[in-house]
Amino acid sequence: MITFKLTFLLSKVYFTVVLHLINFYLFNFDVYCWKNNKITQILVLKSVEIFRYVQVTGVVGRAELLSSIFLLAAFLAYTKSKGADHSIVWTPIISTVLLVAVATLCKEQGITVIGICCIYEVFVAQGFTLPMLIDTLLQVLRGKDGFPYAILQTLLKLIVLIISTLLLVIVRVQVIQSQLPVFTRFDNPAAVSSTPTRQLTFNYLLPVNTWLLLNPSELCCDWTMGTIPLVESLLDPRNLATVVFYAMLSLLAYHSLWYGHSSSKIVMMALSLIVLPFIPASNLFFPVGFVVAERVLYVPSMGFCVLVAHGFKLLSQRGGLKKTSWLLMGVLLTTHAVKTFNRNWDWESEYTLFTSALKVNRNNAKLWNNVGHALENQNSYERALRYFLQATRVQPGELLLKMNKPSEAKDAYIRALELDHTNADLWYNLAIVNIEMKDPSEALRNFNRALDLNPRHKLALFNSALLMQESGVWAMAI
């Protein structure tokens, strides 16, 4: 409520810019705490890059910005938890826990800053490497030595952070009443797909998001429905992108974990900013209500900018590449600034926003439909009709059902089944249409056809059981 009042007081655009600037300065202080002297390039790149994401003033965009503010503030507070005599200062730790709670209330991924703090404590503040930790553990297990005092202090701080994290998770689970939200094939097609399509697609989305960070030239306001086709086979060439992604991530992780110099620490913190805040939105551990959402790249883009700036620093220190590196950095900043300026105009109205999305993806019926509605609001009915018709050609059944036209949706699914009668999803969607048309017996028959083709179709199992219970068929079957 407070953010809505501030939004109307300052106007949507100005309030969003204020939140961006707060994130900018907090990021400045956080990077300074890593004792990286070459932070100018990071900050300049950050100021240009970050406005490419979360260019929205709605509640979701503000939640992302607010969560980022408290996430950065929590990490900044934690960096003060080590005293001059290497003792534990508890006030910053308590402040960190409180700020993490506020960040989590803004957006769930705010809780991931606990992981960032743990990584900072072990590998940056204490200066450990993975071989050092393994060697110390082996020495203790063999009974040759006890844990050093520095490790005991670190363990105590980590235990406090982990316990506070568990408490926050318990509170969050109680809020959602121990139930994860259920998403449809319309929102996230891979979430309701069978194995291995679900796993291959979700893993492929990781290099897709990485490419958006590396080359954010094709941005889209809506990635649902058919925007990214499912990866249904191991022979799909897109799996190569997944393999390359994991190979590069493994190399960076090895470099940061195995060595103790300043470069590895910078890479370590950059990776923690990229990976940990993205995990809740990755679909890897639990499904979310979207395929790709550029707003969730807000915090990961901070870590990505650290990697770019660090790479620039290493190149500029080499005599033969100094001029070349400065030239490349200048080109990068200029092109990103121009793209950001042009991208801002895409958000001028609903029409410009959705038409810009159609330049990127023409297989999303929702985008065609939204452009049609935008033209309808402008009283351009003939043009709107062309977009509505194109939407029904791209994905007829789902869109017609969304438009409250169940009879037309039923006809569309029947025509689709004539072409592919072994598709369990089509039978399931037809059953949903039957429910909308108040025909439970036909819906149950179509649910059963879907289950005959795919006995593990979770949505068909759930909805058929629910339908049987509500209609009394369950009692009759018993």
From TrEMBL:
SUPFAM superfamilies: TPR-like
Name of the protein described by the UniProt record: dolichyl-phosphate-mannose--protein mannosyltransferase
The keyword Acetylation appears for this protein: no
Source organism per UniProt: Sinocyclocheilus grahami
Keyword annotations: Endoplasmic reticulum, Membrane, Repeat, TPR repeat, Transferase, Transmembrane, Transmembrane helix
Span of the signal peptide: none
Bilayer disposition of the protein: Multi-pass membrane protein
Domain DUF1736 as annotated: residue spans: 178-249
Matches recorded under PANTHER family: PROTEIN O-MANNOSYL-TRANSFERASE TMTC3, PTHR44395
Record has Transcription regulation as a keyword: no
